[in-house]
Amino acid sequence: MLPAASRLAWAESYPTRPVHMVVGFPPGLTPDIVGRLIAQALSQRLGQQFVVDNRPGAGSNIGAEFALKASPDGYTLLVVTFANAVNATLYQWLNFDILRDMAPVVGTFRSPNVMAVNALFPAKTVPEFIAYAKANPGKVNYASPGYGTVNNVTAELFKTMTGIDMVHVPYRGSYVPDVLAGQVPVTFAPMPTVIEFIRAGQLRALAVTSVTRSDALPDVPAVAEFVPGYEAIVWHGIGAPKDTPAEIIETLNIQINAVLADPKTKEQFANFGGTVLGGSPAEFGKFLADETAKWAKVIRLANIKPE
Predict the structure, then answer these.
(1) Which of 34, 51, 194, 265 is 20 to 30 A from 274 via CA?
(2) How far apart, in whole angstroms, are the C-alpha atoms of residue 105 and residue 252?
(3) Dihedrals phi, psi of 206, to nearest 5 degrees
(4) Alpha-carbon span 238 to 241, nearest angstrom
């Protein structure tokens, strides 16, 4: 009983020093922004600094490996994203398994992508787009920031479910200028990337990729209204190295759920088209497993390979 009691006392005093939240992307992107909002709120609630630690590279795998191989003491956490579910299949050489090596804490953020076209593109609805693509097989290009990115797999799922043929144009830099100019007519982009261009009339939103419409673009239909069963969302969560004490996982889950329930957090997420997730560690674990399995099928069917 003594080790168990000692472990409980240790968990009850958590945290006693700064906690690092590893983000596998550069500053300024949505995972970083969401991570910082949550880190700031946890710092205020728990009286210790929660510090965002950006470790970008290899499609966010560098940050994930660093976090999951850290000591399982609750002082290194991972900001988990959609990319981690995709990368589990996309990359064959990973030195970690996101499902095996991570203790899920909680889902935090979700947001649809937007199927957006250049303002001069002839199709004004999803059915018109599908008809246009079928009449012009292999002549409609879509833009993404690279193979295996959310734009890429979201578009490939759309291709599979509608039976159309689009050509992928991957970019190493920003793809948005070429979509605005009409060089590439369509993208399936994260909402924060394109929402201001849509509001300014420079891009036309044909649909959002969630099952239901988004409060951020209430007049824009969901793809699922025309393609039943279609769903592709960007999401984030928090994880810890496996074997992190359950008491610490529970503390983090309770505190992060409280942050997510705060109207201020909901308003901040809504500003860039997102909503809160929340829930138990088990629910986030199931969600991650389901997402990993879903995108594994898309990656294999489309034969997507990392660059």
Answers:
(1) 51
(2) 7
(3) -85, -35
(4) 11
User: d(Cα 273, Cα 278) in Å, to the nearest integer?
Assistant: 17
| Gap between the Cα atoms of 66 and 133, Å rounded | 43
| Total residues found in the chain within this entry | 307
Q: Please, are residues 159 and 296 in contact by the beta-carbon 8 Å criterion?
A: no
Tokens of 173: 């830099």
* The pLDDT of residue 2 is above 50: no
Residue with tokens 């509001």: 199
CA torsion sign, 53 to 56 to 60 to 63?
A: negative
Task: Report yes or no: 80 and 288 within 8 Å, Cβ to Cβ.
Answer: yes
Query: Nearest Cα to 105, choosing from 29, 186, 169, 21?
Result: 21
Residue indicated by tokens 């899920």: 104
**Phi, psi dihedrals of residue 118, rounded to the nearest 5°:** -55, 145
> Both tokens of residue 64?
């994930």
What would the pLDDT profile of 201-235 be if each residue is shown by its tens digit? 999 999 999 999 999 999 999 999 999 999 999 99
**Cβ 38 vs Cβ 256: under 8 Å:** yes
The whole-angstrom separation of Cα 232 and Cα 151 is 10
In angstroms, the Cα distances linking 130 to 24, 105, 167, 201 are: 35, 40, 14, 22
13-50: burial string, b at 16+ Cβ within 10 Å, e else: ebbeeebbbbbbbeeebbbbbbbbbbbebbbeeeeeeb
Instruction: Count the neighbouring beta carbons within 10 Å of the beta carbon of residue 269.
Output: 22
